[in-house]
Amino acid sequence: MPQTIIDLLNKGREANTADKFRRGNLIHLPTESNLIITGDLHGHRRNFERTVTFADLADNPDRHIIFQEIIHGGPEDSKGGCMSYTLLFDVIRYKLKFPEQVHIIMGNHDTAFINNSEVMKDGKEMNRAMCSAIKRQYKEAGDEIILAIRQNLFCQPLAVKCENRIWISHSLPADRLVNKFDPKIMDRPLKVNDVVKPGSAYLLTWGRKMSQSLLDKMAEMFDVDIFILGHQPQEQGWSQAGRNLIIIASNHNHGYMLEIDLAKSYTIEQLIEALVPMASLP
User: Fold this and answer.
1) For the chain, what is the mean pLDDT?
2) Cβ-proximal residues to 188 (8 Å cutoff; 6+ apart), any chain
3) Is 16 exposed, middle or buried (0-12, 13-18, 19+ CB in 10 A)?
4) Into how many domains does the chain fold?
5) How many CB atoms are located within 10 Å of the residue 259 CB?
């Protein structure tokens, strides 16, 4: 059983790297596609299942899905350990079943797990909570599985860029640190230092409360018009946080997802109209 999980994680890592739409650390999606964008999942299995059913990838070969921030949250074991790794394994299985349609982008909880640095959620240090649960379940194989998870997360792309000038990433650099961000990180192999503060992958996944001037600067830098991000908690499932920014969350019963046609251009108002409450899905 432990070796089966390690093999799954390694195959998932290879699939992330081999994605035919990936160039460097950026996914470039074709115009002849439909795209479903989810926000942070944080172990919310029901919303993952709703997304899978709604997407029906087997009957929609031109449809793509973006997932992010899968770990840290959701069910706990008898000692309070975080069991969100079980959802991560299932998302990886989904990626392996549809390797060119499922895309998993890096979030800040991923960089924290890679580095084994502290990250708090709901008053709990999540890396300790998740690692302890893994070790209780997998015993002496726990450390090897934790390493395989870190290697898998490290191979995730950083963002998705669409031909209709929409950009999807977990976050953007904060105003006070944006000058330390190197956009060339999208084109070169990722290094461990990139996911440690103030590395550019760290900055891209941890920023909050971006000003409009920063959003305009990043739009020019990436040659896009609109940003769809996660990371910042959304009690109502989404918010418009700037003239060209929508933040969505998929990790609770008021979660949302977004479905768009990549052959069409969108205004921010049209994207808001396209938001789908996940509780409305079967």
Assistant:
1) 97
2) 24, 25
3) buried
4) 1
5) 15
Q: Residue 123 pLDDT > 90, yes or no? A: no
Q: Residues of the chain with pLDDT > 90: what percent?
A: 97
CA distance 196 to 237: 29
* Residue ranges making up the domain that contains 23: 2-280
With b for 16 or more beta-carbon neighbours within 10 A and e for fewer, the 153-175 pattern comes to bbbbbbbbbbebebbbbbbbbbb
Measured CA to CA, the distance from residue 89 to residue 111 in angstroms comes to 17
CATH of the domain at 119: 3.60.21.10
β-strand partners of 22: 27
Instruction: Please count the residues of the chain.
Output: 282
3-state secondary structure the chain: CHHHHHHHHHHHHHHHHHCCCEECCEEEECCCCEEEEEEECCCCHHHHHHHHHHHCHHHCCCEEEEEECCCCCCCECCCCCECCHHHHHHHHHHHHHCCCCEEEECCHHHHHHHHCCCCEECCEEHHHHHHHHHHHHHHHHHHHHHHHHHHHHHCCCCEEEECCCEEEECCCCCHHHHHHCCHHHHCCCCCHHHHCCCCHHHHHHHCCCCCHHHHHHHHHHHCCCEEEECCCCCCCCEEEEECCEEEEECCCCCCEEEEEECCCCCCHHHHHHCEEEHHHCC
What pLDDT is stored for residue 122 in this prediction?
84
